[in-house]
What does this fold into?
Amino acid sequence: MGIFLRWLFAFLLLAATYNPTQWSYVRWSMAHYETHLSLVVFLGLVLAIGYIIYLRATLRSIGGFGMILILALVGTLMWVLYDFGLLSLDSQQLNTWLGIFALSVVLGIGLSWSIVRRALSGQADVDDIDE
It folds into this structure.
């Protein structure tokens, strides 16, 4: 359940920032930055903090190569679904949601990698400890 929640929060973070609907930070901030600049900046900083947490944890746990590898795995899964006719890429909105999903999988796995690694190997990770 912890892995699912980490992925869900990554998905919500990405979808709150940008999505093909009118309910995204990017669209809202572009329409209201003149009248609500302080709120635009505040919410932008809240989103930036979320991205920093996810990106830092992901880069520390799986690194840049791991991020590319997971993104490639999700991309090839979508390719397989497309080849078998289970996925259509005709809709630009669907493609945007698929991109958000793919990036959220990378961030969710990156934040959950210690849990996955411990479950697979039986070894616990230890953070850097100052003595």
Summary: The chain has a mean pLDDT of 91. The longest helix spans residues 92-121.
